[in-house]
Amino acid sequence: MISLQGPQGHVDAGGLAERQPLPAHTIWIDLNDPSADEAAAVEAATGLRVPSRKALSEVENSSRLRRLRNGLSLSTPMITFDKVDSGLKPLGFVITRDHLVTVRFHELRAFAEVKKRIGEGDAACATSTEIFLLLMEELVDSLADALEEMGADLDALSTRIFDFDVKTGAGKFDPKVPRRRDVALRRILRSIGRRGKALGKIRSSLLGLERILPFVAGECETILGAELEPRFETIRRDIASLDEFEIRLSENVQFLLDATLGLINVEQNNTFRVLTVVSAVGVPPTLIASMYGMNFKAMPELDWAWGYPYALALILISALIPLAYFRVKGWF
């Protein structure tokens, strides 16, 4: 899908389908999951090469940051911000003096916000560089919001882990809470894993933007205009602060992971302890039962009228004594 933006907002892109020239005052050409025909139409109208998804997915730095004859070609992975299962998809920019071409393959709130700000006249957008900076600011803001939300989620997980119980604090059973502690711990472990995975993707997105900005800023004097350098520096400082915040969240994820694994070990130890108690309790009754199960003729208890109740009582007492001992020791 093609979307055109000028200094005053949206520009009709109908003529591009027939390979017509770009409408007047068009500065920003936004391609959202473009087809081959759409990419070819933009290339014919601008004379710029629209990078393919494969080209934007290259991981080497020389492919992500390239100097063109009349501009710059940039790419970075960007998180999809999907709460269920976030992923990374490539995001590309082609910047010249007259135009900014963006190529993306998923919806991004930052792009919608920049288009809204341009339409409302809420930001300086007379040049391609100014629109590029608006996009960088909104992308950084989106990543900051994602990290803040991640921090709140980790705080909630921390409460669940360190106040761990399968019942509510009031003692009433909550049907949403699993009855088995191991099931609850597995759910917590999966939650930590999802957040750790999302943090890794946010980190990749921040790293991509962190590489782009110095490269673009270095070209300001010859291509983009030196008066915009302070805005680049502000965005770079914002990214640096987000890097520090992300590192602290990653450390928190590792801490919560270690705590959860510790609880799982405690649960496993409890299981082995119960098995140990059962084994120890079962040994004396088994010994007595096996002794009275021997078929010797000279066993005096065989002639007792109360011999059978006596044997049963002895078996019961031999089981209760170890149970009482383990109970006193606090083993269960």
TrEMBL record:
<feature type="transmembrane region" description="Helical">
    <location>
        <begin position="274"/>
        <end position="294"/>
    </location>
</feature>
<comment type="similarity">
    <text>Belongs to the CorA metal ion transporter (MIT) (TC 1.A.35) family.</text>
</comment>
<dbReference type="Pfam" id="PF01544">
    <property type="entry name" value="CorA"/>
</dbReference>
<keyword id="KW-1133">Transmembrane helix</keyword>
<dbReference type="InterPro" id="IPR045861">
    <property type="entry name" value="CorA_cytoplasmic_dom"/>
</dbReference>
<dbReference type="InterPro" id="IPR045863">
    <property type="entry name" value="CorA_TM1_TM2"/>
</dbReference>
<keyword id="KW-0472">Membrane</keyword>
<feature type="transmembrane region" description="Helical">
    <location>
        <begin position="306"/>
        <end position="326"/>
    </location>
</feature>
<dbReference type="InterPro" id="IPR002523">
    <property type="entry name" value="MgTranspt_CorA/ZnTranspt_ZntB"/>
</dbReference>
<keyword id="KW-0812">Transmembrane</keyword>
<dbReference type="InterPro" id="IPR050829">
    <property type="entry name" value="CorA_MIT"/>
</dbReference>
<protein>
    <submittedName>
        <fullName>Magnesium transport protein CorA</fullName>
    </submittedName>
</protein>
